[in-house]
Amino acid sequence: MASESYPPPFRSLNNSTQIVDSDEKADPVHDLEDPIPLVDLQSLKLGKQLGEACEQWGIFRLVNHGVPPTLLSQLQDHAETFFSLPFESKQSLITSPLSYFWGTPALTPSGAALHRKGTLENINLVEGFNVPIAQLNQFQADNHIVASFSLVLEEYGKHLARLATTIFEAMLKNLGLDPIESKSNLSNSTGSVRVYRYPRCSNSNSAWGLDVHTDSSVVSILIQDDVGGLEVLKDNDWFTVKPIPNTLIINLGDMMQAISDDKYKSVTHRVKVNKNKERISICYFVFPGEGSVIRSSKYKPFTYSDFQEQVQQDIKTVGYKVGLEKFKFSEAV
Ligand SMILES: O=C(O)CCC(=O)C(=O)O
Ligand SMILES: [Fe+2]
What is the ipTM of this complex? Predict the structure, then answer.
């Protein structure tokens, strides 16, 4: 892979003079066959499988999801082609309402990278671009690589909206929540796709692809290539989310944890970089509608924009996202 495709600070990551030490980071990771619960979208037992996975893990693997395997492989091929373009071309080709970023997954509402307090010595080894799906039709793509990628993303976006709605409705049913009252807590017009590339890094202990975090979304829907690196926390143990072709990974985010009154978990996860291979993943995040208030017994009523504002402020001042804790009834704001 031509190193000029990488953001400049990533170009020395495979420098052979770097010390390569053991593969293990501080905490051990369980590398079981496939620990992640499986949910079959076509199964009559969907509600039961889903409820258990959401309560115990906050993440599950979705099968029989109806996204054609050809579409999934097209997405992967387009992402590889795009990321291998020179860094400067990627910066100039991705224009508003899309945005290109690297070094952090934290973005401002307009899509610019939001660098944390005390950063640069502490960057995440990731580059990507953000695509607000509802605004994709406003994107002027003059370059043919980007234009054909955006058509594939538009097609994928329709499947993602369908899946997010189906899963959300099944979760509401499982929680015994009123589907009409809770409907606005998921709005597909807020959906955005992030396409990521994680560089390979000979010293994979030196930095993370993505630091430990929870997603702020209602749900996130993720596909990954065959490299692996995503790890999730359950009951103080880390587990690898293996790459399994044609399966989708569904993560619950902070909004869903609050909507469920803490019955469901917003899963804690992180991404490790690989010593030998770069990795591509494509993630969809969907949020409550604008002005939609989340009410529960654990948290003060809040909207997603209240939450997002608080997160941005915390990243700038404390250096990390504090998250739902800030909205707990017992917390002083
Ligand atoms: O790349 C991945 O596997 C996960 C990405 C992720 O966790 C995120 O964007 O929030
Ligand atoms: Fe995440």
Answer: 0.99
Atom of ligand 1 nearest to the CA of 281: 1
Instruction: Look up the pTM and report it.
Output: 0.94
Centre of ligand 1 from the C-alpha of residue 129, in Å: 13
CATH fold label, 8-295 = Jelly Rolls (2.60.120)
Confidence band (pLDDT; 50, 70, 90) for 14? confident
- The ranges assigned to domains in the chain are 8-295
- Interval 35-45: pLDDT, tens: 999 999 999 88
197 CA to centre of ligand 1 in angstroms: 10
What is the spatial distance between Cα 273 and Cα 205, in angstroms, rounded to a whole number? 8
Ion ligand 2: residues, CB within 5 A, are: 215
Residue 312 and residue 295: Cα distance in Å, rounded? Answer: 22
Ligand nearest to the CA of 249: 1
pLDDT over 80 at 116, yes or no: no
Percentages (nearest 5) of helix, strand, coil residues in the chain: 35, 25, 45
Tens of pLDDT along 62-110?
999 999 999 999 999 999 999 999 999 999 999 999 999 999 887 877 7
**Relative to the alpha carbon of 271, which ligand is closest?**
1
In order of 46, 263, 266, the CA distances from 116 in angstroms are 40, 31, 22
The amino acid that residue 240 corresponds to is: T
Dihedral pair phi/psi, residue 82, rounded to 5°? -60, -50
Is the shortest distance between the CB of 219 and ligand 1 below 6 Å?
A: no
Is the minimum distance from the CB of 224 to ligand 1 under 6 angstroms?
Answer: yes
How many angstroms separate the CA atoms of 144 and 89, rounded? 13
Q: Which of 207, 242, 26 is nearest to 123 (CA)?
A: 207
